[in-house]
Amino acid sequence: KPYCDIHYHQQAGSVCSGCGKAVSGRCIDALDKKWHPEHFVCAFCMNPLAGGSYTANNGKPYCKVCHSKLFE
Questions:
Q1: Number of C-alpha atoms within 13 angstroms, CB side, residue 4?
Q2: Residue 35: DSSP 8-state
C-alpha cells in the first residue's frame, strides 16, 4: 500500500518525539524513541543533549545537572 510521507514514517517508527515530524537523515535513538538531534533536549532546561550524556526519569531526558537538582 502506498502511504503519504508522515503515515509512512509513523508505520516505520521514525517520527521525532520532539516535534512529531518525520525523521530523515541524522537521528538520535534514545528512550525507545527517535529524535531530530536539535529536538533531543533536557526536559527541564531545554539545553541540547545530542552528543552529551543524559539521565531519564519518567520517560523524559534530563541533563545531569537538572536531574541532580530535581530528583536527587
A1: 3
A2: E
Global pTM reads 0.82
DSSP character at residue 66 = H
Q: What is the pLDDT of residues 12-53, one digit of tens each?
A: 878 999 999 988 888 999 999 999 999 999 999 999 997 778
Distance CA(63)–CA(38), nearest Å, equals 15
Sign, Cα dihedral of 57, 6, 27, 43: negative
Task: Give the residue extent of every domain in the chain.
Answer: 1-40, 41-72
Look at the chain and count its residues: 72
